């Protein structure tokens, strides 16, 4: 088990080397609902719809003054560490929240996007040579692509959410070696399953 404070390990298996970086970044209300330009407008809109993340009540930012300050501090510290990696080393970034807003486009309640990340990381998949961005906050297991970078939502979700899925929950998802082909199952040509797979 690795934490965001540990040294980033390097995958040296097929397709490597690739640095694997666990991240803890939070959110800063920058994924605002359409028509809203401030956090206050966004929160008022969310309260008006009745869709408010429990984090509003349960996630305390101490010792930071606000969740936004905590998020900015985490982003700055993580950005420094990623920038210190060799400039030719690809990465797999793993976080609770996606780096970019696009995965939230399918939310049934778009206002929930406010609690799904920060615009401060929107270009990290390009800046830090990301091969796959792994996240899980949305509980919508799927793969999307942005600028030829794979965004893999790998959450198990809650039992109440399993009824609407076509596949059983908790199936391993291969991240390394890189998957290609249909959907996001299988291995790159010539690569076998098993030894050294990161799931």
What does this structure look like?
The protein has 199 residues and is of the alpha/beta class. It has one domain: Transcription Regulator spoIIAA (2-Layer Sandwich), CATH 3.30.750. Helix content is 20%, strand content 14%. It has 5 helices and 6 strands. Strands 1-2-3-4-6-5 form a 6-stranded mixed beta sheet. The C terminus is likely disordered.
Quick structural summary:
The chain is of the alpha/beta class and 199 residues long. It is built from five helices and six strands, in the order E-E-H-H-H-E-H-E-E-E-H.
Structure annotation, total helices = 5
Count of the domains: 1
Q: Structural class, please?
A: alpha/beta
Instruction: Give the ordered list of helices and strands.
Output: EEHHHEHEEEH
CATH architecture: 2-Layer Sandwich
Q: What's the CATH class label? A: Alpha Beta
From the structure above, extract its key features.
single chain; 199 residues; alpha/beta; Transcription Regulator spoIIAA; 6-stranded mixed β-sheet; 5 helices; globular
Topology diagram in text:
Layout: E1 10-11, E2 18-22, H1 39-49, H2 55-58, H3 67-83, E3 91-94, H4 124-127, E4 130-135, E5 142-146, E6 149-153, H5 159-162
Parallel strand pairs: 2-3, 3-4, 4-6
Antiparallel strand pairs: 1-2, 5-6
């Amino acid at each position: 088990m690795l934490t965001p404070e540990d040294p980033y390990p390097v995958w040296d298996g097929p397709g490597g080397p690739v640095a694997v970086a666990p991240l803890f970044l939070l959110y800063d209300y920058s994924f605002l609902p359409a028509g809203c330009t401030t956090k206050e407008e966004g929160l008022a809109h969310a309260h008006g719809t009745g869709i408010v993340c429990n984090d509003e009540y349960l996630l305390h930012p101490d010792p930071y003054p606000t969740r936004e300050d905590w998020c900015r501090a985490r982003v700055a510290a993580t950005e420094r560490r990623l920038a210190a990696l060799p400039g030719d080393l690809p990465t797999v970034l793993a976080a609770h929240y996606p780096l970019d807003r696009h995965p939230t486009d399918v939310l049934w309640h778009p206002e929930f996007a406010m609690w799904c990340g920060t615009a401060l990381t929107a270009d990290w998949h390009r800046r830090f040579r990301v091969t796959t961005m792994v996240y899980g906050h949305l509980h919508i297991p799927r793969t999307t692509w942005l600028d030829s970078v794979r965004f893999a939502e790998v959450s198990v979700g809650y039992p109440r959410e399993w009824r609407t899925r076509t596949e059983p929950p908790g199936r391993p998802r291969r991240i390394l070696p890189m998957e290609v082909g249909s959907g996001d199952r299988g291995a790159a040509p010539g690569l076998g399953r098993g030894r050294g797979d990161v799931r």
